[in-house]
Design goal:
This protein is mostly helical and about 300 residues long. About 65% of the residues lie in helices and about 0% in strands. It is built from 9 helices and no strands. Helix 1 (about 5-30) packs antiparallel against helix 7 (about 220-230) and helix 4 (about 85-115) packs antiparallel against helix 5 (about 125-155). The mean pLDDT is about 85.
Length: about 300
C-alpha cells in the first residue's frame, strides 16, 4: 500500500460522500422513492399541493441509468476522440443531468394533469424552479459516481477492475440509489411529510396521502423539504455511501487481490459482522431509553 493508493482511496471516499448527499437531496426535491407514493395520493384524499412529484422509478434503477449514461458518453469521448478524462466525465454528467431533467418534466406534467379531476394544478413556477435544482444535484451525483468508477478502472493502475468502466458506474449507481432510498427517505417521508404524526411510529394505510402541505411560511414546496433534509438526511446518506465506497476499496488496497484475495474477503466479512453487532446494540439502547410508542403499550386496543 503506497501513498498514491491511499490518496486515491481518500479521494474516492470524499467523492462518494458528496455523491451520497447530492443524490438524497435530488430525490427530496423531486419526491422520488418512498415519499413519492404519498405525494401521488395527496390530491386524491383532498390535499392539493405544490410539491414536485417526478418519480419515474425507484432510486436505484434511475441512478444506475444516469451513471451508466454518463460513463458511456465519457468512454466514447475518451476512446474515440482522445478527450481528457476530466472534460469527458464532465460532459457525460451533463448528458445525465439533461436526461434527468427531461424525465422529471414529463413525469411532473403527466402526474399532475392526470389528477386534474381532484383539483390538482400544474404550477409552472414550481416546474421552472425545481427542475433546475434537480438537474444540478443530478449532475453532481453523476460526476462523482463516474469519477469513482474511472479511478477504479483507470488504465494507468497496476491492477484494473475486471469490469468495464460503464458497468462499474452502473453498479455504483444502483448502490447509491439503494442507500439514498433506505437512509435518506426516513428523514423525508417519515419526518417531513408527516409532521402531524409521531416520528417513527409507522403510518397506517388509511392515512396515506395525508401529507403536510403548509410550510413555515405559506404553502410548502419541495424546496422547503430539501432545505430541511439538507440538515441531516443528506449528510447521513453521504456518510453511508462514503463509508461503503471507502471500506470496500480499503480492504483491496491493503491486501493485494492477486495474492491476498482471501484476506480481503475475510476482512469484508468481519466489517459486515461488526456493523450488524453495532446496529443491534444501538437498537437495544434506543428501545430501552425511549420505549415503545404509547399506542402499543396496551392502553389502546389494536
Amino acid at each position: 500500500m503506497d501513498m498514491v493508493s491511499m490518496g486515491l482511496l481518500a479521494a474516492m471516499g470524499a467523492l462518494a460522500t458528496v455523491a451520497g448527499a447530492s443524490e438524497d437531496l435530488e430525490s427530496d426535491v423531486g419526491s422520488q422513492s418512498n415519499p413519492n407514493s404519498q405525494v401521488q395520493l395527496a390530491a386524491q384524499v383532498g390535499h392539493t399541493h405544490r410539491i414536485y412529484n417526478k418519480a419515474i422509478s425507484g432510486e436505484p434503477p434511475s441512478n444506475a441509468l444516469y451513471a451508466a449514461l454518463a460513463a458511456v458518453t465519457a468512454s466514447v469521448l475518451m476512446s474515440g476522440y482522445g478527450m481528457n478524462a476530466f472534460f469527458a466525465i464532465a460532459i457525460g454528467s451533463v448528458m445525465a443531468a439533461i436526461f434527468n431533467g427531461i424525465f422529471s418534466v414529463t413525469a411532473y406534467m403527466g402526474r399532475n394533469t392526470s389528477q386534474a379531476r381532484f383539483n390538482q394544478y400544474v404550477y409552472l413556477d414550481v416546474l421552472r424552479t425545481h427542475t433546475t435544482a434537480i438537474m444540478a444535484h443530478a449532475y453532481i451525483t453523476a460526476f462523482c459516481v463516474v469519477t469513482i468508477s474511472y479511478i477504479m478502472t483507470a488504465p494507468w493502475l497496476p491492477i484494473q477492475h475486471p469490469f468495464p468502466f460503464p458497468l462499474v458506474a452502473m453498479i455504483w449507481g444502483l448502490a447509491i440509489g439503494a442507500i439514498g432510498s433506505s437512509t435518506g427517505d426516513v428523514h423525508y417521508g417519515g419526518e417531513r411529510e408527516f409532521q402531524n404524526y409521531i416520528f417513527g411510529a409507522g403510518l397506517n394505510a388509511a392515512n396515506s396521502g395525508d401529507i403536510v402541505t403548509r410550510a413555515e411560511a405559506g404553502l410548502r414546496s419541495s424546496i422547503d423539504n430539501v432545505w430541511f433534509c439538507a440538515r441531516f438526511g443528506g449528510p447521513v446518506t453521504g456518510m453511508a455511501f462514503g463509508l461503503t465506497v471507502f471500506l470496500d476499496n480499503w480492504r483491496t488496497t491493503i491486501f493485494d487481490p492477486a495474492t491476498q484475495g482471501w484476506y480481503a474477503v475475510l476482512t469484508g466479512i468481519v466489517i459486515v459482522i461488526l456493523f450488524i453487532v453495532y446496529n443491534r446494540i444501538l437498537e437495544i439502547r434506543a428501545r430501552k431509553r425511549y420505549g415503545p410508542y404509547p399506542e402499543y403499550k396496551g392502553d389502546i386496543e389494536a
